[in-house]
Design goal:
Helix content: 40-55%
Strand order of the largest sheet: 2-1-7-6
Distance between the termini: 114 Å
Structural class: alpha+beta
């Protein structure tokens, strides 16, 4: 028997390793491009969000300037105060005393000497058509002016 010839033997060639080494530079380029696209997408969304926020701030600031708080007491006296004027406004009648406060474009009942304090618990209002009522003192605080789509839709239906 003849001895086998071992001089010609070589290690087997792994074809998958050769494919992976050729594909890895391409894969890293694709990954970099995808990360750049993701960053550009996020940056674009951020720019759009900031622009929308700025437009809303401008719109609300313009809307606050033309809204008016109308305070009507039990005797029929009426005060009209722009929501752009922060301050406290006492209203004294024979039925009692209320203090209406305007802060940052909203109106709320700061204090009242009526029982229950439902007018205080109603919270702040700032849109056209909203009201605060102090029933024991027969005091009504309402908002007029501005552009409030919800109130316009209700007025349209009521008409």
């Amino acid at each position: 028997m003849a001895a086998p010839d071992t001089s010609m033997r070589t290690a087997p060639v792994d074809s998958s390793a050769a494919e992976n080494s050729a594909a890895s530079p391409y894969a890293s380029v694709v990954a970099r491009r995808q990360s750049h696209r993701s960053l550009l997408f996020v940056a674009g969304l951020l720019v759009i969000a900031i622009a929308a926020w700025g437009c809303m701030q401008i719109a609300f600031a313009a809307n606050a300037d033309d809204r008016i708080a109308v305070i009507t007491d039990s005797e029929g006296a009426t005060q009209r105060i722009p929501l752009s004027e922060n301050g406290s406004y006492p209203v004294e009648t024979a039925l009692g005393t209320n203090v209406v406060a305007i802060e940052n474009g909203e109106v709320h009942m700061d204090s009242a000497d009526c029982p229950g304090h439902d007018c205080i618990n109603q919270g702040a209002i700032g849109s056209a058509g909203e009201i605060i009522v102090c029933l024991p003192h027969k005091l009504i605080v309402s908002i007029e002016g501005g552009t409030d789509e919800g109130a316009s839709a209700i007025d349209t239906v009521a008409s």
